[in-house]
Design goal:
single chain; globular
């Protein structure tokens, strides 16, 4: 006991000194936010968004996008179309990887890089084969803008900077314009209002919601041992807002579980703030070399969140439904 008591002052000093070191490292790291002007171009936005989504808030921001996509499946007009393609029902793992890699190709790389341009071309080619309303396009766009901000506001180790909100909105606004989406709200605040009003009006129960939602839930659980998956389903339900649960036909989880998961994520944010040094480099899934993309360019993901769909590589021009032939890429002209 005496030896233990004698080490307490030293231990306290070490912990205090370490937290001061983490504070100073974060202050130096965050000088970027204070010293860099508000972004005005896609290239300016990229400096903020890649750092925000894949650097400072990699885990929270990526999970927010995963659950954000999940929210779009609770819109009957969207889930009905997705179910009709059978992609999310019969090839959910591949469908996730196709979507994730296409998005990462244009978010993880400079907007003018050939592979970023090629991924947007491929996305537009796929979407051109389906009848999608501007309203639905705009809702999905709003999810990608708003959810990473809201999740970080709730669970992040710091609050998002106004420049980051502006950058995320502007970057996706430019992407939306490249997709041909019209009537895009002019600010982040206006986009938040659009999202909330759209969900209040359109997020309602549908059998198609249930079908695509069930297969996606099973994908989320696939990283766990098979025997414990049924026990972990309530945790996914707990992360869903009440309106989303109702639209998906999910049962309400125990209130205590909702509170525990919410508190655990907030505690994790505090731990990161005081005890984890800033991430030096963003955690990108796509390879770093800015290759000149052609139809035959083979690329390799750095990691696989769920399935190893593209362990042997992928081509941007072939991402998406197998039923669609590869599209010509703009940079090949």
């Amino acid at each position: 006991m005496m030896a233990s008591a004698s080490t307490m002052p030293l231990l306290t000093t070490v912990v205090f000194g370490y937290t001061i070191l983490i504070y100073l490292l974060r202050k130096r790291h965050d000088k970027f936010l204070e010293s860099t002007p508000y972004p005005e171009t896609a290239a300016d936005c990229h400096k903020f968004t890649s750092r925000y989504i894949y650097g400072d808030f990699n885990f929270i921001a990526v999970k927010s996008l995963e659950f954000g996509l999940f929210k779009t499946y609770a819109i009957p007009s969207i889930s009905k179309l997705l179910y009709s393609t059978r992609e999310l029902v019969e090839r959910c793992g591949r469908r996730y990887d196709d979507t994730d890699l296409l998005i990462r190709e244009f978010l993880e790389h400079d907007p003018d890089e050939p592979r970023a341009v090629a991924s947007i071309d491929r996305m537009n080619f796929i979407h051109s084969k389906y009848k999608i309303s501007n309203e639905d396009y705009l809702y999905v766009l709003s999810v990608f803008i708003v959810e990473p901000i809201r999740w970080v506001e709730r669970y992040g180790f710091r609050y998002p900077h106004d420049k980051e909100k502006h950058a995320i909105h502007l970057r996706w606004k430019i992407i939306g314009e490249q997709m041909g989406i019209t009537d895009i709200p002019a600010s982040y605040a206006a986009m938040e209002i659009y999202l909330d009003r759209f969900e209040e009006k359109n997020m309602v129960y549908s059998e198609f919601n249930v079908k695509v939602g069930t297969s996606t839930t099973n994908l989320f659980l696939s990283i766990l041992p098979e025997k414990v998956r049924p026990m972990c389903k309530p945790a996914i339900y707990a992360l869903c807002p009440p309106r989303l649960r109702k639209a998906m036909g999910f049962p309400d989880p125990p209130t205590l579980l909702v509170v525990l998961i919410d508190a655990s994520l907030k505690i994790a944010g505090c731990f990161v703030r005081f005890f984890m040094p800033p991430r030096r480099l963003p955690k990108f899934r796509t390879s770093r070399e800015p290759v000149a993309v052609s139809k035959n360019t083979l690329l390799y993901p750095k990691f696989n969140p769920f399935n190893k769909t593209y362990e042997k590589g992928y081509k941007i021009s072939e991402l998406g439904p197998e039923s669609l032939s590869s599209c010509p890429l703009t940079r090949e002209k």
